[in-house]
Amino acid sequence: MFAKTQRNNLTQGTAVVPKKKDLVRRIIQYKYFYLMFLPVFIFTIVFNYIPMAGIRFAFYKYNPFAPPKFIGWENFKTLLVNPKFIAAFKNTITLSIVNLVLGMLVSIIFALLLNELYNKYFKSFVQTVLYLPHFISWVVTASIFYLILSPTDGFINQILGFFGIEPIYFMIEEKWWTPIYYFINRWKETGWGTIIYLAALSGINPELYEAAVIDGAGRLKQTWYVTIPGIMSTILVVFILNLAKVMNIFESVFVLQNPMVLNVSEVIRTYNYKVGLLQSDYGYSTAVGLFNSVISMVLVIIADKASQKIKGSGIL
Amino acid sequence: MGKPLVKRTLSIFIAIVLALSVAACTKKAEQPAAPEKSEKSEASKEPEKPASIKLMVDGTFITKEAGQDQFVAEYKKMTGVDLIINQPAHNQYYEKVNLAFASQDIPDVLIISGTTMVNYAINGALYDMTDLVDKSPIMQKVGQKYKDAVKINGRLYAFPTQAGNGPITYMRKDWLEKNNLKVPTTYAEYLEVLKVFANDPDQNGKQDTIAFTAPGLVSDDPTTLQNYMVDFYQDASPDFIKKDGKWVDGMLEPEMKAALERMREAYSLGLIDKEIVTNKTSTCRDKFNAGKVGVFTYWAGTWNMNLENELKKAVRDASIVAIPAIKETKYLERVPATMAITSKAANPEGIFKYFFEFMHDGDKGTLLFSHGVEGVHYKVTDGKYEKLPSLQDPKKPANKAFIDNGLQIVPFNDPITPDPRITESLKVFNANSIVSTLLPVSENYTKNSADILTARKETISKIVLGQMTIEEGLAKYEKDTKAITDLILKDFNAAK
After folding, report:
1. Nearest CA among B209, B247, B240, B215 for reference residue B228
2. Which residues does chain A have within 8 Å of residue B22's beta carbon, measured at their own beta carbons?
3. Which is the most buried residue in A71, B23, B36, B452, by most CB within 10 A?
């Protein structure tokens, strides 16, 4: 009723100013919805907002033995002048952004290819095979690739040996470690990443393809002019959501790291784990965490603004 | 008006909740966390028996699956004291300990070792039990070297639970015999053995063996960073060491240069596992158990038996021998594992008597903490003690309860005779090892130990694998770490 009134008012160009009475009336009217929402609201407050009070420890000297002592920006100064932190920051941005872009491209390409499969049994089989690596833990994944890439009896080096190429100790060479990291991430997460795009693809109106065929569009042109624009909103949403997580990479790097490749593999979270948590310097660790969150937030806002400029709408 | 009102109401509510939470946290955090020095009771007084003891332990203590409840019940029966055990996941133990102290959820007693113990002691988190130990006739029976190894500035803030133990070099005995080789006694002989072990020692016509393996070139175990590679490091150490009465950085000593040359040469000759840098301990064990490896420096004692048993599953006729240290070096016994009473404990004297003294009584207490509970972990038939099947894996005998077989530090007439391989390797180890000592107190070291260890690992790995020359590597290490190592050495040398 209220929505109808509002729509009518909007079409007439008048602003709607709900009255206080309306709010109370609406709350009473939709009391069961509010009741259903209450646990979610309480959960969010208790587990998402109250713990945020811990942010203040970024400005404290805080270890397990003494009361926290306020030290202002000292923790941030320490981390921003530390060359190892700066190197870790650069690695985090490089590995994450490249991984994010590659992840989206490969997932979209696989989703488009899967969408073209007509035999539904074969399609299900391929999808299952693609999803499976997502469920393998990072520790096991690392062990599998260490075995495959072993310089002594690894599968890849056996193939290279067949062509007379000397064995390569892939995991300790900086030039190999980074592409291998990207590859392992794609192997593990591509299948999972296709799910959302396949859902978006199924929502494209088939009439658009029929119209494109009538206009003489082939498969590639249909993809370019119908499919990609059809899933563009999903691509942007996924991109912005994933951008919020770029500073959080840890496990995938940690399990593949070794002392020979720290120049390219030390990221903020692995560095923080070593110098912050293991040494129980909670103030410094919190400062690093807060720094991470602020950078993530800035990236998301920039991406959202860019999305608004390009597409006319964002998600925030 | 409705929408802004909702927004405003929500904002005010969130702001109030946040403010309250900040206030609550502030109040909690600002409670005095400084250690309270417990008053010691008169020596003549019998300490009060504690009703319960809150214990924080890692995975080395008997687990629930292995019969912890039965252990606790038996302990209660014998002492009248309840043990309340908090046992986090083994690999997260020290993170959880730190969090327990930060959140003031402090146990009475905890397992604590090495650098962590020093850090906790200097911050006043541990009870100084020196006087109690000195006055205890039971604790006088504990080997002095174990007590000395864990002293900080001459005081005992934690007490050893068992001998430190350490890695010993195991060799494939069947390969030695097959190739008419003797157990090496010098580095030159050791290298000869490795050369044979790298070149079809099992005579199967394939080059499919690894002469020597280790989990990395530098261990993570503080004060014994070289322990898995001791035959190569010999008199060198990548850690801070005391030389001519003064603390120095072992990385920059001439002995280290010679050690790096040895490791680099052995690696280039294919005598050291090509994948040493990415090996984990489990990877090394798997390779050794699969019958691929000739020499592996690993823990003395129970591991001798475990390694040989597993190896025999892959190669039926295989056998191993724990060799005495070669002439140029000694094995390193790590600083003993310890348990401490926290300074927050209400009744440290009672805890000392009913927990620590009981554990080391050389009688029923030591038996309980070593082998567990009669009828659950072992049985006695006609005065003969025998291990029962493990509750977790009935195919194997029950594991230790806490103290390793053969590593008790008090005179103890153990009624359960360990496997001869365990006693033999421990005997060889004890005759060929030196006990490590804790590093002195330094806040600079505590703050930067992870950075320094990373720099050491990186430098040594890159030099040994040939990505840097020894001179380049050490010069870079010195440049990267000098500012902080100078401060640390200043602290160390100023310490009493």
Report:
1. B215
2. 53, 56
3. B452
